[in-house]
């Protein structure tokens, strides 16, 4: 079996080998060095891989096996050489990781495989015997590795999230100097044919303008841009940020460059303007937690596709749809990707946006609302209050900023409630509405600028209702964790007694624990996950050059094992103990035995994660003592309790973008709900659907009534009864080389096998 890769995050190699081994194959796994060039050259460029040789790769960026453009493979003669090299080694399955060009080449290679074999026989390079019969067909599966996220059919390509991390790190650093010197900064990011990086970066940093190839600015954009920058300065903003994709064009197809924009701003406005071209820094660095998990899941699905393939199976590409890894017809996806380019060339820019997919379209619509629409002169006479509840987390401020700006755009007066329900009960509500500029710059700030407490409203409902009436609050945006959800339920239950709380209510999940019912993801969880992952990387690196060592790391999450599980996948853990998956002393013994066997190989480090409330008896200290005692003479142990560092830090690009879209969508929903609930000159909302959780389910943001979610809630342990991520836990054991059959993984993911043989359009 071979993995021929043009671009690859290295964790997929680990997955591919361990999956084959776990299926009981005589695991002959080969890596092709330098992509198609290595395939053509053969020899040492196609080398065998073992489980040990691809261990400790997870945190490495780029591709360990190399990548190269290959002109030889574009010719039939070159492809015949590649076929000859594969036939000699008995390789009939190829996993290609790259962009649409690499995947198109792979499909062409597969299509003409029979003809290439016939040519080899005629040329005398292959005997017409058993060897030819064994190599009679070639199975192909593709994975998309591209920082541009320019391949249609998948929500995210491998590498995109890591590139966004690099961009936002630079933007945050530049913002500091821009504010100090009152400057305008123009940042050029990659994206020759796709503006995803530029668009999401603009949303994540609150940029004043973004230029992308899919949607060139209207005629007269120069005047519009200058007016916008002047307007921002007149409101008190000390900086302006403009994001430019390298492929940005005007309506007539001419390039729009960062130097051109700089000259415009300097000449017309006289602003102190600087240009920064990020270049290849976006391709480098350590992979983010999301990219590690994405690569691992896609690697599993890719090898599964190869194992299940028959000579009649069409080439497929492994894609991400919401939180599911799915298989789609390769050439259909390639064709839609080409259709985007064709639409842009024909000036059909609205079509290009739609062809990019729902996620891209939603990002673009949110950006337009927040950046290009001025507040109306006529007010709605509606007061919307915003508050944070529960423990602080990164991304809360981004959600507040987005909600406030969207509310102002709708003509509402936005009120800030400090210190949660406790503050609402004690009148800690801003008398003057929050202004547009007062929340500028909040996107990249961690924690909670409004202040937050875990206090629930139940015991002080009288005071809460009185202050809702006093400050004339017509709708409520509650941003927080499980306390926000429970607090929202208590407000709904209090409607029978207190008419003042009969107002539309929306809860936006924001907690590192990711334990709010009604949503697959919570704001803040991605930042915490990246913090844990990077810390585990450093912890493992601290043992470099020492004797064999196992680290026991305790994570947050309450009773929810999301952080422990996902961090285990991202950091390459040997086990992750969680409350949802019960374990006994025999399981602990089996894990110790497994590590003892592992440490007898060339692998020198082990990692065990433990959710803080996974078991009241098998504590972190107990597990540390057990591993220390049983590992004597083979490995020693160290333990780390990460604590509140998981709640701090600046938000990741995902959390900023997610929070921005959630905040904007919540206020748009409230605006419509207020119209429905306006009766006899006042707001009265007492139906179940007037108090909802806004959550992400698979690929869409949905509003679900708080009351309807009670049946799916374990209130004692503060977790949902059904959690999607439990189904991918077997991957961690597969990667850790446990003796586990893939039937376990297949059974757990039956619900996730969607559209494997259907069309992309369906």
From TrEMBL:
Pathway: Carbohydrate degradation; glycolysis; D-glyceraldehyde 3-phosphate and glycerone phosphate from D-glucose: step 3/4. It catalyses: beta-D-fructose 6-phosphate + ATP = beta-D-fructose 1,6-bisphosphate + ADP + H(+). Keywords: Acetylation, Allosteric enzyme, ATP-binding, Cytoplasm, Glycolysis, Glycoprotein, Hydroxylation, Kinase, Magnesium, Metal-binding, Nucleotide-binding, Phosphoprotein, Transferase. The keyword Phosphoprotein applies. GO terms for biological process: canonical glycolysis; fructose 1,6-bisphosphate metabolic process; fructose 6-phosphate metabolic process. GO terms for cellular component: 6-phosphofructokinase complex; membrane. Its EC number is 2.7.1.11. The keyword Phosphoprotein applies. Its cofactor is Mg(2+). It holds the Pfam family PFK. SUPFAM superfamilies: Phosphofructokinase. One of its GO terms (molecular function) is metal ion binding. Residues 31-305, 383-669 form the Phosphofructokinase domain. It comes from the Eukaryota. Belongs to the phosphofructokinase type A (PFKA) family. ATP-dependent PFK group I subfamily. Eukaryotic two domain clade "E" sub-subfamily. This is 6-phosphofructokinase.
